[in-house]
Specification:
single chain, mainly alpha, 81% helix
Length: 464
């Protein structure tokens, strides 16, 4: 363990090695739904885009469970390896794997049993309900494989091979991209074709991820360890819960905003279908941007976890500082894209619809007005998760969407309708940034008081 590169390699090089493949994996995963929407928009029109947007929360909910298990398992594996306890790492892996199989079954069965009530809750209007139900009922078959891919991405990253999962996801995305136009246009299958192309890519990517398990270097999935143990389940869920909450908060925000777009859009000149489709397109692009921050934050986890477990606290602080700087740079770039590229991006999905393009541009600019502050809270939440402080991580993770955005959008929309819902987002981004910076300042001040930031590194007792 003393020769592990996580404790010796330059931080910048490690961040690049662990963040870029994870980021690419998440971006490719986000592209599944985006590619579907582009082809569906061209083949079916605004109603098709709105219908696939309504089903998006089920993707996010499955990702929430997968990331809770994967990130929680990976964080515990990193901490165990940092302490030199390989046996604990093996048990965490075994329990995480069994939890993943169980979660996939729950998502599939629950989605099939409550399909239409679920879509109505997600914000489906009568005009798009049938299309959305057709699309989602097919998508559910591929979600367990997608969950395996997402969860194992974090675990394989902790084992030291993030590049494998990047290649796996790219193969799945390539299959989806090739099959989409063939099934949608050549065989004229519409949303059914889009859904079948998606699950084909997900199944292949999921199977490739599972095939890597026997090749793990630092942890093994032994037969004698394949049983659920409450001690390990609790530890996985404790450190993975912030990841779950971040994704669940995204799903909750999507559901609330879908319903606000449907209701207040119906009262405006744009209509429910235009506002639903435009907001959906914006959130798909937002998912690509968000994937970069999650990839960066996730890339810091094995570095922070190993070094914290090894008591190399200065490397932990340096990792955080570099990651925050990178996240701010990414935030500024995406702010420019959202500010000046909204209409062009929307036109990729649907052409020759003046009202649609008008609202799309306004939606992008209003909702993303303070996006240049978006990155640091993501890195901060991941930092607290990696050093074993799930409650602090949870507070930061929930701040933007649950604590600030959802209440503000509901309150402001009562007075300002569509604009109130949209402009709640930049206020939430600003408040979340200020909270994260205050918490990390307090944390590092605590480290100074216990003697961590001195030349000779000593032990550190968490001071929650």
């Amino acid at each position: 363990m003393q020769d592990n590169i996580l404790g010796t390699e330059k931080i910048g090089k490690l961040l690049f090695k662990f963040s870029v493949p994870t980021t690419m994996t998440l971006i490719v995963n986000s592209l599944y739904n985006i590619v579907d929407q582009v082809f569906v928009g061209r083949a079916v029109g605004i109603d098709g885009v709105a219908a696939t947007n309504v089903s998006f929360p089920i993707f996010i909910m499955s990702a929430a469970l997968a990331l809770m298990i994967g990130d929680g398992c990976a964080a515990n594996i990193s901490l165990s390896l940092g302490r030199g306890d390989e046996e604990a790492g093996n048990r965490f892996f075994a329990n995480g794997f069994l939890l993943l199989l169980l979660a996939g079954a729950v998502i599939f069965c629950g989605g099939m049993m409550f399909l239409r009530p679920m879509l109505l809750f997600f914000g489906a209007s009568e005009a798009v309900m049938d299309i959305s139900a057709t699309y989602t009922s097919i998508i559910l078959w591929g979600l367990p494989f997608s969950m395996c891919n997402m969860a194992l991405t974090a675990i394989i990253r902790a084992d030291g091979n993030p590049q494998y999962m990047m290649r796996t996801m790219m193969i799945g995305a390539a299959i989806n991209l090739i099959l989409d136009p063939i099934l949608i246009f050549k065989f004229q299958m519409g949303v059914q074709g889009a859904a079948l192309a998606t699950i084909a890519g997900q199944v292949v990517a999921g199977c490739l991820a599972l095939a890597y398990i026997p090749r793990m270097e630092h942890v093994q999935l032994g037969k004698g360890k394949l049983r659920l143990e409450w001690k390990f389940i609790r530890a996985i869920c404790a450190l993975g819960f912030p990841s779950f909450c971040m994704q669940a908060a995204t799903a909750a925000t999507q559901i609330v905003m879908n319903n606000l777009m449907r209701y207040y859009g119906g009262l405006s000149i744009y209509g429910s279908e235009i506002t639903l489709s435009c907001y959906g397109i914006m959130t798909k692009l937002y998912q690509i941007a968000h994937a970069m921050f999650v990839g960066l934050a996730s890339g810091t986890q094995p570095i922070n976890g190993f070094n914290f477990g090894s008591r190399k606290y200065k490397r932990v602080r340096e990792t955080y500082r570099i990651a925050v700087g990178v996240s701010l740079a990414i935030s500024v770039i995406w702010f420019g894209i959202f500010r000046w590229g909204g209409a062009f991006i929307a036109e990729v999905f649907v052409k020759d619809e003046p009202l649609y393009l008008e609202f799309a541009q306004h939606c992008f600019r209003a909702y993303m007005l303070a996006f240049f502050l978006y990155g640091p809270p993501q890195v901060t939440a991941s930092f607290f998760q990696a050093v074993g402080k799930p409650m602090k991580s949870l507070l930061v993770a929930l701040s933007r969407q649950v604590i600030f955005l959802i209440p503000l959008s509901l309150l402001m929309s009562e007075s300002y309708e569509l604009n109130g819902a949209l402009y709640a987002a930049p206020i939430a981004d600003t408040l979340a940034f200020l909270l994260a910076m205050a918490m990390i300042y307090h944390e590092f001040q605590g480290w100074k008081k216990v003697g961590y930031l001195v030349e000779k590194e000593g032990s550190y007792k968490a001071a929650d």
